[in-house]
Design a protein that fits this description.
The complex is a heterodimer of chains A (124) and B (206).
Chain A lengths: L1 H21 L3 H9 L1 H4 L15 H5 L2 H10 L1 E3 L4 E3 L7 H15 L8 H9 L3
Antiparallel strand pairs in A: 1-2
Helix pairs in contact in A: 2-6, 6-7
Chain B lengths: L3 H16 L12 E3 L2 E3 L7 E3 L5 E3 L7 E7 L7 H15 L5 E7 L7 H11 L7 E5 L5 H7 L4 E3 L7 E3 L2 E5 L5 E6 L3 H16 L5
Parallel strand pairs in B: 5-6, 6-7
Antiparallel strand pairs in B: 1-2, 3-4, 5-10, 8-9, 10-11
Classes of the chains: A mainly alpha (124), B alpha+beta (206).
Chain lengths: 124, 206
């Protein structure tokens, strides 16, 4: 009887862990809630209206990438527009950028909230 | 074996049922009976400027089947998904001289004809003679949206300033609303594209 109970408990814990694995990460949830409408689920955007995420942005232009999310884009000359997301905190911003990294630039270094905090100071 | 005639008849009727073409699309909106004639809801005369800076009015869609929607170029919510789906519609019917797409901008302050041309260029339809991006004057937005049974309103609590539905309205060659769908959902747009084909096949007025 005792053995059966412990087996059931083990099974329950395994199932819970599996369910946890399938739950979208916080970065993915944020992406789906705030970015997906324009950048699309695969991050490829829409023709030239919303350009696809470029892996270089995650390698060499990381500060610019962070500031683009924080400040948005409003360029009447080119017609490009993106709302600013300055209400996202450093951890949220790191999570969502890391999710986009997983889509488009997996080999680039992960963003940390410290990096976001530091880059945010210079955004203007 | 004695059931053979019954089964044969059943198969025959199922075949007939499958072959039967769908009936005509309903005519939507309020209708009224005047002197014994049914008057259906119709999109009234209109005149706006398109992305080329040219007047675009009821004569431009005379005897055409068209899809109408409401959007604005800075919209960060449903508009890109709608544009993605309208690109599919344009890809399928853009070559047909009897078909048009009318995208009405509800942000006349920012969406000048130049801004609309840039938007169309970025979508890759800058030279399309089928898809027209219309700049609607502020005081005419509610009225024209209402005639398309679309909900559009200003909302100062939103950064973008507007709320609107993402519906595509399918209009026939007599400017009557014949169908609609959620323009953000690919499966609904699949259905609408079948209905566009049906309308294009309907006999046109001589």
């Amino acid at each position: 009887m005792k053995k059966n109970l412990s087996n059931l408990l083990g099974l329950g814990i395994t199932l819970c862990m599996l369910a946890q694995c399938q739950r979208p990460s916080q970065g993915e949830q944020l992406y789906l809630a705030t970015c997906n409408a324009c950048h699309m689920e695969d991050g490829n955007g829409l023709v030239d209206l919303i350009p696809a995420f470029q892996p270089e942005g995650f390698e060499t232009n990381r500060k610019k990438l962070i500031c683009t999310v924080v400040l948005g884009i409003n360029d009447a000359n080119t017609g490009y527009f993106m709302p600013r997301y300055n209400t996202l905190n450093d951890a949220d911003l790191a999570n969502v950028l890391n999710y986009i990294r997983s889509l488009k630039a997996e080999s680039s270094p992960a963003f940390t909230d410290k990096e976001i905090e530091s880059a945010r100071q210079d955004c203007r | 074996m004695k059931h053979f005639p019954f089964i044969s008849a059943l198969v025959f009727f199922i075949y007939l049922g499958c072959k039967q073409s769908p009936g005509p699309l309903p005519i939507l909106g309020e209708s009224e009976i005047v002197n014994g004639d049914t008057i259906f809801h119709q999109i009234p005369d209109f005149s706006f400027l398109d992305q080329y800076g040219q007047p675009y009015n009821q004569d431009s869609v005379f005897s055409k089947v068209y899809v109408s929607d409401f959007f604005f170029t800075k919209c960060p919510t449903i508009c890109p998904k709608m544009a993605q789906q309208l690109l599919r519609v344009h890809q399928k019917f853009g070559h047909n001289p009897e078909f048009r797409i009318l995208s009405h901008s509800i942000d006349p302050k920012y969406d000048t004809t130049e801004a609309l041309k840039k938007y169309a260029d970025k979508l890759g339809v800058g030279d399309s003679r089928t898809w027209h991006f219309l700049s609607v004057p502020k005081n005419e937005i509610s009225a024209i949206a209402g005639k398309y049974l679309a909900a559009v309103q200003q909302d100062s609590t939103l950064e973008e300033g507007f709320t609107h539905t993402g519906h595509f309205l399918l209009i026939d060659h007599k400017r009557r609303i014949r169908s609609f769908c959620d323009g953000t959902k690919p499966n609904e747009v699949d259905r609408l594209m079948k209905e566009i084909s049906l309308l294009l096949d309907e006999k046109k007025p001589q």
